[in-house]
Specification:
With 286 residues, this protein is α/β, with parallel strands linked by helices. The chain folds into two domains: 7-208, Vaccinia Virus protein VP39 (Rossmann fold, 3-Layer(aba) Sandwich); 219-284, rRNA adenine dimethylase, C-terminal domain (Helicase, Ruva Protein, domain 3), CATH 1.10.8.100. It has twelve helices and nine strands. Strand 3 (71-76), helix 4 (82-88) and strand 4 (95-99) form a beta-alpha-beta unit. Helix 2 (33-43) crosses helix 3 (60-68), helix 6 (131-140) packs parallel to helix 8 and helix 9 (219-231) packs across helix 12 (274-284). The longest helix has 13 residues, at 219-231. It is elongated, with a radius of gyration of 21 Å.
């Protein structure tokens, strides 16, 4: 069986297939065996588990997922990579390839069809340009999966894992933590990929919550408050909320809401806890 993390093997595949990396699809294939093992280990797969992979590329991670999981389903948007992926993984019978856009396909239907009755874990080396949309798409869909273990741009991972009061804390931090518990697994340098990206990467695991850590009357209203609070980070909470088209209250009304919640109107969004965001949202969107 070929080691798909080998640069020599990758170059042979490129030479034989004439495949060209697509910048528009953000194709940077992971070739670091240590990072690959970290992803598989953090995903915590068993033969009774199913693994859902997004953007398998040449199958470097897929190969290891197939050895650890009972079944693997890969969603790959690049039709040019499909025959290469099928050839590279010809030693395995427990994987399925779906040529589709992960943001457009019915993930719930795919999981039901291929993993019915199985514990499902998602693993991926995500394209940097579409990392956040994919993560939020999966989280907001509330799919029957246990976790997401993904390689993403380090800067984005730090924003996801950032606690309140720090410079990296923002709307993305709150949104992801609403649905999942983040854990940074390992940082990965550009040299771990082919071709090499210009930024460092991080493997982060998001363990799905059974329910959000705060109770909200309206999820839409909650996220409206969060987004408005971070839209202009230098503004006080009073000004940020009262100037936002997403908040249906004037300045005096916002001031009264913040006072009832025991929140100083001069604070900024980055200092609020998730519970405080929920308190404000529940007062506005009852």
């Amino acid at each position: 069986m070929k080691n798909l993390a080998s640069i020599k093997v990758i170059k042979e595949i490129l030479s034989d297939s004439g495949f060209k990396f697509s910048k528009s699809l953000g194709q940077n294939f992971l070739i670091d065996e240590n990072a690959l093992e970290k992803i598989v280990s953090a995903t915590e797969l068993t033969p009774e588990c199913g693994a859902l992979e997004i953007g398998p590329g040449f199958g470097t991670l897929t190969q290891r997922l197939c050895m650890a999981a009972g079944k693997v389903v890969c969603i790959e948007i690049d039709s040019g990579a499909i025959p290469i992926l099928q050839n590279n993984l010809s030693d395995f019978e427990n994987f399925t390839i779906i040529n589709d856009d992960v943001l457009k396909c019915d993930l719930a239907a795919i999981i039901k069809e291929h993993f019915d009755g199985m514990s499902v874990k998602l693993a991926a080396n995500l394209p940097y340009y579409i990392t956040t949309p994919i993560i939020m798409h999966v989280l907001e869909a509330r799919l029957p999966i246990d976790s997401l273990t993904v390689m993403i741009q380090k800067e984005v991972a730090m924003r996801i894992a950032a606690p309140e009061g720090t410079k990296d804390y923002g709307a993305l931090s709150v949104a992801v933590n609403f649905y999942a518990i983040p854990q940074v697994v390992v940082h990965v340098p550009p040299s771990s990929f082919i071709p090499q990206p210009k930024v460092s990467s991080t493997v982060i695991k998001l363990t799905m919550r059974d329910k959000p850590p705060v109770e909200v009357a309206s999820e839409k209203g909650f996220f409206s408050v969060v987004k408005a609070s971070f839209a202009q980070r230098r503004k006080t909470l009073l000004n940020a909320l009262s100037n936002s088209p997403q908040i249906p209250l004037g300045k005096a009304e916002v001031s009264r809401v913040l006072s009832k919640c025991g929140i100083d109107e001069k604070r900024r969004g980055e200092t609020l806890t998730m519970q405080e965001f929920a308190d404000v949202a529940n007062m506005i969107f009852k």
